[in-house]
Write a structure and sequence with these properties.
The structure holds two protein chains of two kinds. By secondary structure, chain A is α/β, with parallel strands linked by helices. Chain A is about 35% helix and about 15% strand. Chain A contains 15 helices and 17 strands. In chain A, the strands form three sheets. Chain A has an eight-stranded mixed sheet with strand order 11-10-9-6-5-4-2-12. In chain A, strands 1-15-14-13-16-17 form a six-stranded mixed sheet. In chain A, helix 3 runs parallel beside helix 4 (about 125-140), helix 6 crosses helix 7 (about 200-220) and helix 8 (about 240-250) runs parallel beside helix 10 (about 280-290). Chain A is globular. Chain A starts with a strand and ends in a 16-residue tail after the last helix. By secondary structure, chain B is an alpha+beta fold. Chain B contains two helices and four strands; from the N terminus they run E-E-E-H-E-H. In chain B, the strands form two sheets. Chain B has a two-stranded antiparallel sheet. In chain B, strands 2-3 form a two-stranded antiparallel sheet. Chain B is elongated. The chains are: A alpha/beta, B alpha+beta. Bound molecules: iron/sulfur cluster (3 copies). One iron/sulfur cluster (SF4) binds near residues 5, 50, 56 and 59 of chain B.
């Protein structure tokens, strides 16, 4: 038996090339149906390739504040709380300012490969601002890929203009294909100079989305579909959405949890609509995965995020700071190309090593029927290795190990989720919150961990482990799983550890 | 005849490009309508464009001070039903 690392399908593909077999959102096996030039579009995009997101960075610029629909999970005052970012945008940029910022960041963070416009608002409801930014960048910074997120309403009429730019991918938020469900998510849309309410509005939106999706696919653009999982509204329906968009040729489906806190001032937040639990989300992601790629490393970035996924270096590049900078982009492009080549070389070497690892791990002798899957949480600041102190981690990557493989499941932010139980009150400490966020995990792998959290984790039935610091995540997870097997820990569930059910 | 933008505007820019009379301009603390230019879209559109896209209730008012998007009109829930709907949603 070979221990491979897969996105989600159970088929083993030890010879996976391209984006490597690193629990990638775009597992190579599942890319096989795509032509080579499309696969090439994905491998260095942090949002499309789970492997790439350890090494390449992206940035968003907030140039598009207007929107042509209303979602119940959005409050424009705080901008778009699900589609692209939970939080606020600190500065709205003009296209010229945005171009300057992108070039400055690209020169300073050479790992930056992708520039996205994702609101706040809908980029295609702001076509002038969005296309002005794209036009300038296509010309001045041809080594940067452009990316756009949209609700799809205005997509069909703008698709050709969009395709003129350096665009490989488009993200569309599609929460439903049934207008009755849509009416519970979208109170109104703005269509042909009128506000259209309820089911009728949702019907138009859905039609435009499906039409736009088809048009993009026909033009060879990769489409990632984001769906916000809203318990009691579209949770049962999203499997159908997944099937529908897959049938149309969408490339990746990203099911994201609803974030609805009263203080966000959104309709759902104010009305007390809850978000899904980790388990509910994971279950739905598994159900939707089928043979299409599911994205599990999405960080629901802010609309002005800068840097690697899960980090934000926006503060280094505020308007006043970049104003003074003069960018020699020709020189920057040379440096960028060198850095990208070095990353590719590292990835290739890693791939080589992994293939060797397959052999050594194939001696793994856990009896199949007795071993059960185990979730482990990893503290990492990137690079695909375990390199973060437990106490510093604001998010954890969740991996599942079973007798067949190690796979990346999701990431969990320690401060984002409310599990809804009574441990979640005001007096809850940061540590307690973190431990709550790790519900369902049996092991935490980190570079170091303090005495107090060690004890609390053990009490919660989670084994802290700092022995694999600086090791590759998948190798460490596999090794720990093997150890657990040898200690007989895989025969039954520890009694203290319960999966969240509510 | 002119509409007015009052406190509560979130400066989202949605209305500005739609105005057929170029009456809307970005200002602080919030966007404003130039009363001399606003035609209430008469002759251009059946619906007043700014009020038809504005996402915030009660922010755009007519010369009488009446809100074009009164409370509940954009969420689809009449104010007196809020409590019932809230209970329904919380039960999900
Ligand atoms: S599409 Fe985005 S910006 Fe527009 S209302 Fe929905 S969440 Fe908000
Ligand atoms: S009512 Fe019409 S003309 Fe007047 S400000 Fe609004 S959009 Fe412009
Ligand atoms: S649409 Fe409404 S909230 Fe947005 S800028 Fe205009 S008046 Fe202000």
């Amino acid at each position: 038996m070979e221990l491979t690392v897969l996105g989600q399908s159970q088929t083993t593909a030890p010879d996976a090339g391209g984006c490597a077999s690193s629990g990638c959102g775009s597992n190579d096996d599942q890319l096989n149906h795509l032509p080579e030039h499309i696969r090439a579009k994905v491998h260095n995009h942090p949002c499309y390739s789970e492997e790439a997101h350890h090494h390449y960075a992206r940035m968003h610029v907030a140039v598009a504040p207007a929107c042509n629909i209303q979602c119940h999970y959005c409050n424009r005052k705080y901008d778009c709380s699900n589609e692209s970012r939970p939080g606020v945008v600190s500065e709205l940029l003009t296209p010229d300012q945005a171009v300057k910022k992108v070039m400055t960041v690209a020169a300073n963070i050479p790992q930056m490969t992708v520039l996205g416009i994702a609101g706040p608002g809908d980029p295609l409801a702001n076509p002038e601002r969005t296309f002005d930014t794209f036009r300038q960048l296509t010309e001045k910074a041809p080594d940067i890929k452009l990316c756009v997120s949209t609700n799809g309403l205005a997509l069909p009429e703008l698709v050709d203009e969009l395709c003129k730019h350096n665009i490989d991918h488009v993200t569309m938020t599609i929460n439903c294909v049934d207008p009755d469900i849509g009416a519970q998510i979208y109170p109104w849309i703005f269509w042909k100079n009128r506000r259209v309410y309820g089911r009728k509005g949702a019907e138009i939106l859905i039609k435009q989305q499906q039409k736009g999706l088809q048009m993009l696919v026909d033009r060879g653009i990769l489409v990632k579909v984001n769906s916000v999982m809203i318990p009691g509204v579209n949770d049962k329906h999203l499997e159908e959405v997944s099937k529908a968009v897959k049938a149309k040729g969408a490339f990746l489906h990203n099911v994201m949890p609803l974030i609805a806190e009263a203080e966000h001032g959104t309709f759902y937040g104010v009305m007390g609509q809850r978000g899904p639990t980790h388990d509910e989300l994971q279950e739905l992601q598994d159900a939707c995965s089928g043979d299409m790629n599911m994205m599990r490393h999405c960080r629901q970035c802010r609309a002005d995020a800068v840097g690697m996924l899960g980090e934000d270096r926006g503060d280094e590049f505020t308007l006043d700071k970049i104003e003074a900078v003069d960018v020699d982009y020709a020189a920057a492009m040379v440096k960028r190309a060198e850095v990208h080549a070095a990353i590719e070389a590292t990835l290739a070497a890693k791939q080589q090593k992994k293939n060797e690892t397959f052999i050594s791990l194939s001696s793994l002798s856990i009896p199949k029927k007795e071993s059960r899957p185990v979730l482990m949480a990893i503290a990492t600041s990137g690079g695909g290795i375990i390199n973060q102190h437990f106490g510093h981690a604001r998010e954890f990557l969740i991996y599942e190990a079973n007798a067949h493989d190690v796979r990346f499941i999701s990431h969990r932010k320690t401060d984002l989720y409310c599990s809804g139980d009574d441990t979640c009150g005001d007096g809850e400490s940061v540590l307690q919150k973190t431990i709550n966020a790790l519900k369902g995990c049996e092991v935490v792998l980190c570079s170091k961990i303090g005495y107090e959290p060690w004890g609390m984790l053990e009490e919660a039935g989670i084994i802290p482990n700092g022995e694999h610091a600086l090791e590759a995540i998948e190798d460490a997870v596999a090794a720990v799983y093997k150890e657990m097997g040898e200690k007989g820990l895989l025969d039954k569930k520890p009694e203290t550890q319960q999966r969240a059910t509510a | 005849m002119a509409l007015q933008i009052v406190d509560g505007c979130v400066n989202c820019w949605a209305c500005e490009p739609l105005c057929p009379s170029k009456a809307i301009y970005a200002a602080l603390p919030h966007f404003l309508i130039d009363a001399k230019k606003c035609t209430e879209c008469d002759g251009d559109y059946a619906d007043k464009q700014c009020a038809s896209i504005c996402p915030v209730e009660q922010v755009i008012v007519d010369s009488q001070g009446a809100a074009l998007n009164p409370p509940g009109s954009l969420t689809g829930i009449p104010p007196e039903r809020w409590e019932r709907v809230r209970a329904e949603i919380q039960a999900r």
